Each structure stands twice: as C-alpha cells, then as structure tokens.
Amino acid sequence: MNTDPLGRFHCVIPAGGVGTRLWPLSRAAAPKFLHDLTGSGTTLIRATYDRLAPLVGDRVMVVTGQAHRLAVLGQLPELDDHNLVLESEPKDSAAAIGLAAAILHRRDPETIMGSFAADQVIGPVDVFQQAVREAVCTAATGKIVTIGIRPTVASTAFGYIRRGERLDVPGAPSATHVVEFVEKPDEEVARGYVENGDYFWNAGMFVAPVSLMLAHLERNEPELHAGIVEIAEAWDTAGRDETMDRVWPGLPKIAIDYAVAEPAAAVGDVAMIPGLFTWDDVGDFAAIGRLNPASENSRMTVLGEGARVYSDRASGVVVSDTKRVIALIGIEDVVIVDTPDALLVTTKEHAQSVKEAVAALKASGDVDVL
Amino acid sequence: MNTDPLGRFHCVIPAGGVGTRLWPLSRAAAPKFLHDLTGSGTTLIRATYDRLAPLVGDRVMVVTGQAHRLAVLGQLPELDDHNLVLESEPKDSAAAIGLAAAILHRRDPETIMGSFAADQVIGPVDVFQQAVREAVCTAATGKIVTIGIRPTVASTAFGYIRRGERLDVPGAPSATHVVEFVEKPDEEVARGYVENGDYFWNAGMFVAPVSLMLAHLERNEPELHAGIVEIAEAWDTAGRDETMDRVWPGLPKIAIDYAVAEPAAAVGDVAMIPGLFTWDDVGDFAAIGRLNPASENSRMTVLGEGARVYSDRASGVVVSDTKRVIALIGIEDVVIVDTPDALLVTTKEHAQSVKEAVAALKASGDVDVL
After folding, report:
1. Which of B50, B145, B247, B280 satisfies CB 3.0 to 4.6 Å to B207 for a cystine?
2. Residue range A350-362, pLDDT digits in tens
3. CATH, range A5-280
4. What residues of chain A lie within 8 A of the CB of B334, using their CB?
C-alpha cells in the first residue's frame, strides 16, 4: 500500500449530458464538454483534464457515450484505451461512476478515486487543486468526500450540502462532516441557506476510496453493484466488449447522489471540503457572458472562431458556429446562437427556457437538429 | 393619333434600388423587387406588371441594372428584348425614366407614359387602375400627372405633394392642379400636412405625354436630354449597344423630381390624381409585418418557403431564406432575417437602422454579403 494517499489517487471524468439548455451549440452529436465556452481556446473536457493532471499524471479515466469516442480521444490523445469507458446507452451517474470505481478497485483495491464532471469551469486552478488534495487526505481516513461550493447567490438550480462539525484530518484543515444533502430549494429557502453559512452547492465532486464507494453501492443498489463488478472483472481481459454489451443495458438507472452520497451521509460516512474557487456549470447561455473575461469591457460577448459580428446599440451573447455575418441592432441582453442548421434567438433572462424549446422540437419531430 | 388616350398609354417600370433597409434579404445581387415580401407567392416586380397589364397589355418597358437581366426576364418572360433597358451603371431616375421616354417618343411621339416603381405594394388593384385611368386622361390634356397617396400617418419618410384647384378633365373627376412638391418634413410639419388634407405622399408615380417629359428635361437638363435622345435614336437599330455603352456612363445623375417634376410644377404643368388605394413602399422589415395578412391572427409573421420556426413568448417578423430551424424565446417585436451568409437580428422599432448597418459593413470591407 502506498502510504501517500495522493500516490494512489485516480481521477474519473464522467463526460455525459447533452447540455440541453445550451442548444443548438451543445447537442447529442456535440455535447457541452466538447465546446470551448469560455473563449480560452480549450474545450471544457480538455480544461478538466489539464486541471487534474498535475495531481494524478495519466491516472485519468473518462466515461462517455460510444458516439463521442473519437471526439474525446481527439481532445485527450494521451488517454489510454483501457481508461476510456464507452457507454452504449446512458445509465445515469451511479452506473458510470460505479463502473469506474469497480475497474479501479480490481486493479488496486486501495485506490482513492475522484470524480469530476467534464463540463465545469473552475478557477483559480491552484485553489481547486488544494481542495482536491485535502479531499484525498480526508478520503484516506475512510470517508466519501465531496467538495462543496460556497454559494455566491441564492441559487435554486443546485442541491445543497449541509456541513457539520470540523474533522481533524492531517493535511485537510478545512475538512468537516456532512450532515445531509438537500434537494434544490425554492428561493426563500435558498436565501436562508446562503445566510446560514453552513450550506454549500453540491457540484457532484466526490473523492473516496473505491472500496467504500462500492460498499455503499452494494448495500443500496445490489443489482447495479453486481453488474458493474461483472463488467470490471472482464475489463482488462479479452472479454471486455462482450461483457459490457451483455450486462450494461440491463443496469438500473440511478443518480450517484441517491445510490451512494445521501445514504452514506445518513450513516456519517461523508465529509466535505469547502471549495473556495469560482465554479460554474455553464448551465445556460447567460453563463457564457459571465465566463468570458474578454467581454468585460464590451457589451457584447462573442464566441466563435472567425465570427463576424456587427452590433449597434446591442448587448448580450453571440455564439457563432458559422462564418456568417451577424448584424444586431437595438436589442439588449440578447442571446444568439448561430449554427449551420439551427438558430436560437432569446434573451439572457429566458436562457433557462431553451430546455423547453428542445423538448418542443423533439415532440414536433425536428430531431435532425437536436 | 389614337384618340383614346389609353390606347397610346405605355408603362415604364424602373427596377432599381437595392432596398438597403431590407438587407440581408434584399441586396445588390437580389434587390427588393425580386422578392415576395407579402406572402402572396409573387415577387414585387411581377405584381407590378400584373397590376398594369390590364391597362396596357404588353406595352411595358422595364429599366434595370445589367446584373438583373436574367432575373427580370425570369419574372417577366413576356417582356420583349426591345423593352428591356439595361443600365451598365446606376444613373438615378431622370436618366432611367428619361431614356424610356425618349425611346417611346421616337417610336410614337404621341405616346403617354406612366412610370411605376417595381417595388411597391398596392391594393385594391381596381382602385389603383381607376386612378391610373384618370391620370392618363389628365395627361392627355398636356399635364405631367402624379398620383399622390393620401397619408395615413404623419410620415417623415416621404416627400409630399400639395394639391391645388380642381381641374375639369373629362374622365378624371378627381384631377387637381399641383401647387408644389415639398421635401420630407419633420414630424410636426408632417402632422400639419395630414390635418390640412391637401398634402399627399409623393410615391414617384408619374403619367405624362413623353413629349412633355422630354421638353422639361431638355429645358432643365440639356446635357442629359441630348444623351438620352442620342441613345433613343440608336435603340431600335444595330447601333443600340455601342451607343448605350458610349453615352450612358457620361450622363448626369439626378432624380426625376428635380429634373422634371418640381420645375414643371413651378410652371403649372403638373396635375395630381389622389390615390385612395393602400400603398406601401416596403421601406423596412416593420412593413413586412403590416403587409402579410396571414399574420393577422398570429404574433409572429413568418416569410419563407419551408421555414421552420419555433416560438415561445415571442412576437415579430421572421424572414427565412434557409431551411434552418429558428427557435425564438421570450423576445418581442423582433425582426430576424436568416440568409445563407448573413443574419440580421433587430426589432421593428429599429428596422430603419438597417441602412446604417449596411453602411458600416461596407466601410469595414464585408462587401461579400451586401
């Protein structure tokens, strides 16, 4: 056993989720994590990898859909085939993260894993990395550790983590117990959480010994656990594809929060490190404006290589995935997303409603553009 | 000489003007008159021809740019080559209408001509035609006759015609003298004009004996007159192209209003017939909303074959020249014009400012989309 917990730390990057509220930029064939949404010149998945690599080197596993294999390898050419888990169909986060845990456990049962979604924007990187280091040290004491984000607004879009008493972990001075996970609140409740100071956003970041993850999964979702263990046993053998194809489609669909995090918190197995970095899940196009520092001195945020935008008394966000000239006149807080086969025009205020538009297009049979 | 003035009546359709405020739909390569802007299934130039044909049969001449030859013939296949005047470069309305007058005069000096722009929307057609008939009867008494449009709002976008005493012309009970033409007024002055009742919009419709048009042109613009007469003499001969190419580029650029109408009014040679039909010059995209009856019961006017528009809490005008899906969410009175190489997003209120956008694009070198 490696006595430095960081030496047995592996990262898992679940790269799922279409990012419906970012349609038509993000869509089934080109989901959110494959885009550069911050004007940094880097896709979100590549930025996620680069943020973790200083901690784990090449000990990174990615879980994504089969359709995204080439795109992911294009972004992460250093990724080994054995560390790319391809889902034939989406099975929610418990199956994705659970299978990664089972594969890592089979390779080394002492492994500590960290799961970090592929489509989040985080900075400064060193503050994030320090939080992860604390989380790893805390996980080594036998905890499932979540990194909670200090809320900046009374958001109703996230679940919250209620932290408890301080833990006393060497190398993790800010570690605390977690009392409970709470569902997305209404606005009044959210305001109370922010004032209280003990509530943090649940960003879905988990660091834990793989053995502990699997133990909770076995207790709460025995069928799911049996399936992923069967796949994991075949993973580094010639039987990988056959087993995956046979077992995966039958796995139950459940979120890791329900399958592991909440029941584990109930028995006192969950700890938290406060994440004091800035964090954004780029939930909608209004976020694009916030996240593009280039736009600080301009009323118009423009994303897209070779975008040709003319604006007159206009403000907002333009995402251009074409080389068309876009002329905007006399329109405030607009959101325009221009792609070869679909155009979205809305406002920052209505950015959340893009989800319903996608649902309506789906219902009306316009699936070619989804 | 044909004693029925309608028997010697010929129509001229000047088809010039890009319609800059309708960019990017209307542009140098596909100007306004080549579009169906009313959802009627008919381009503006074809509708203009069809409105005049019952009065003149095939006695129609079109003046347009060389670049539009094929497009115009595509719209008006019945047009004879001898009645299609192609400008190698735009020379404003006095040269265009003057040359038509000179050609018609050379063929028959007793001809009465009527000039009607190719890009106006008019209805009901029988009311228009009755006004033209009155104008022709009045012209036959030796007048340049304009058809003035009764103003419906205090517009500052048009020049006005001030009518004078009633004339006593058989077959033209509503004919009056014209006291003067006045330039585009400011809003207060325009309100006064509308209340007064004797002011009409100048829609640029002129009906006149070609001999009288040419006499005024000779007096006011002798150089221009000499040039168009020289071209007209060669027009129906083998020397047409050579003469046109040699003489046209040197002609002075001046509007027919300054070269003929205003000076003719000053000497009492201009009469007016009030046009009691509805009239719209489709000056900007706000007009598209007004002119499409299909939209009466909808908050969204959609123009374009095969347009795929999804709208949620949105209103305005969409002109689609692509097959893209267009999703609009939470945006009122929007104007969206979607073409393969350029996209315009503005509001009805700012529809007039499209002109400045085009000027800015020109200045910045984005001429490929103009």
Report:
1. B145
2. 999 999 999 999 9
3. 3.90.550.10
4. 331, 345
